[in-house]
Amino acid sequence: METITSYRYIVRKTETQEPVIRGTRISVRDVVEQWKMGMSPDEIPSVYPHITLAQVFEALAYYQDNKEEIESFIGKNKIPESLSGKALSR
Q1: In terms of CATH architecture, what is 7-76?
Q2: pLDDT (tens digit, 9 = 90+) per residue, 53-79?
Q3: What DSSP character marks residue 27?
């Protein structure tokens, strides 16, 4: 389930309230993290080929309007420094 927002392509996951691109599992956070790592908006659909450039721009617009919220989701989903770069045991 999802909750509609005032953005055409952005909805919220019901269980977490995290904003995602409608019809996908790609969160606004995912797009923003790619952009913060230096990818241009034009390049991001090459990482997520099932989203459009318009959706990328809207995710970035949502971020600009809701930075505190998205930064909170980024912080909650950050890999702890102690696990960064380490192989996970099976």
Answers
A1: Orthogonal Bundle (1.10)
A2: 999 999 999 999 999 999 999 999 887
A3: B
